[in-house]
Amino acid sequence: MTLIIKKSDFVKSATKPTHYPEDIFPEFFFAGKSNSGKSSMLNKICNRKKLAITSKTPGRTQLINYFIINNNISFVDIPGYGYASTPKNITASWEKMVLNYISNRKFIVSMFIAVDIRRGIEKLDISMINLCSDFSVSANIMLTKSDKVNNNEKTKMKNKTIKDLKNFNNIINIQTFSAKNGDGVKEALDSISEHLPS
Ligand SMILES: Nc1nc2c(ncn2[C@@H]2O[C@H](COP(=O)(O)OP(=O)(O)OP(=O)(O)O)[C@@H](O)[C@H]2O)c(=O)[nH]1
Ligand SMILES: [Mg+2]
Questions:
Q1: Which of 114, 123, 98 is nearest to 52 (CA)?
Q2: CATH superfamily of 8-195
């Protein structure tokens, strides 16, 4: 069944565990490389323009941002990884923050990992998927900005991604997505529904 999002609210931003909101709702995590389209994807799924802040400048989302959907689901937009000009010590604290976050939350049910369709899967995406695997969290690999490529390239990149991630096929689901034309929105909403308690 397709989830219908009637209400979406920004709750708060957090950097450390004492700032994390109460752990009571099933949680969906939005991860991916900087500038891969995480925040735009979250907005499109919620059918909102400016719920999560998007930007042309990579590294815009620096905090863990919480949203409550339909008063009973959490969406979490986290800072992107792999931004080339991020100093090493910030990258290390990012990894610590995310690992710490994931290991402390009880209700992360699924992860959306944004991967720019023109780039495909890279090393840091694999690290993120490994992390999902370690914590038994399923991952929706979203090949974002699909409006930027033609149908041939779309199919080609989807097949390449399936091949690149064949070792993870029990925990992942691969989808194309566009925040511009709505490609993949229904599939994303369906996937969220599947993970909710009935
Ligand atoms: N054409 C097109 N552009 C997109 C799409 N999704 C995102 N963008 C653009 O890509 C840029 C980055 O988008 P964001 O959603 O801010 O990316 P992010 O992954 O949240 O970035 P950080 O928070 O900085 O890591 C912006 O200029 C968006 O307008 C899409 O589906 N199609
Ligand atoms: Mg963002």
A1: 114
A2: P-loop containing nucleotide triphosphate hydrolases (3.40.50.300)
